UniProtKB/TrEMBL annotation:
InterPro entries reported for this sequence: DUF3299
Keywords per UniProt: Coiled coil, Signal
Protein name: DUF3299 domain-containing protein
Domain of life: Bacteria
Annotated organism of origin: Motilimonas pumila
Annotated Pfam families: DUF3299
Length: 221
């Protein structure tokens, strides 16, 4: 009788989790960013790819010139002279673009911290990859949910609104950090900014989302 009760409980739990996954909306990573993310008054938007390359080359050259030991080659100087002439002929004000660059970088950093208000406070599921933060034996109880395998470890961290801090006290058996998972739960806005110890060293991580997971399973795309 006890065996039958145990089997029924396991079956009921499995069916409940399957039902939960089927009824919840699935959010992909572009859903975590606000719908309006355009940079206001972006003068770079009007430039061609070749012009963007030339402007970047000239700005890098100017930055290198701040180092008194920098000695550009004759060929590089000729390239810079040609770039200046072409940009001037196209009426492109590099000085103005260089001033706008810092403003745009600040706007981009601010936008990377903005969350999508349409899903904050809602319950849904997100596919992604985990980066362990806390473990009990072989089970992960807290982790970063990120869009790509190895993010934060082998590559720089994604933007803050592309990282979800997930708490799952019951623990999820760690298979591999390259194994995609689906995490279901209520999504909240909660700032996280601290140094985290990874397998390849320590790194600063900033996140803007938190989820108290209700269910986690291996993701089958």
């Amino acid at each position: 009788m006890q065996y039958l009760k145990t089997c029924l409980f396991v079956l009921f739990t499995a069916l409940s989790c399957h039902s939960l996954a089927n009824t919840l909306p699935t959010w992909y990573w572009d859903n975590l960013t606000p719908s309006e993310t355009n940079i206001a008054n972006n003068p770079f938007a009007a430039l061609s790819q070749d012009q963007l390359y030339d402007v970047a080359t000239l700005i890098r050259f100017r930055e290198k010139q701040q180092n008194k030991d920098y000695q550009p080659s004759a060929a590089h100087q000729r390239e810079i002279t040609q770039i200046k002439a072409e940009l001037k002929a196209a009426n492109i004000d590099v000085d103005a673009l260089q001033q706008a660059r810092q403003r745009i970088m600040e706007q981009q950093a601010n936008q990377a911290r903005q969350v999508n208000p349409d899903i904050v406070g809602q319950t849904g599921q997100i596919p992604g990859f985990l980066v362990p933060l806390e473990m009990t034996d072989s089970k992960v109880t807290q982790f970063l949910l990120v869009p790509t395998a190895g993010a934060c470890i082998h590559t720089p961290p994604p933007p803050p609104n592309q990282i979800v801090i997930v708490d799952y006290p019951k623990g999820f058996e760690l298979v591999s950090m390259s194994t995609p998972i689906m995490v279901a739960g209520k999504l909240a806005q909660q700032s996280f900014n601290q140094d985290v110890q990874f397998s390849d060293g320590e790194g600063a991580v900033e996140a803007q989302y938190h989820m108290q997971a209700q269910h986690i399973e291996v993701y089958q795309p």
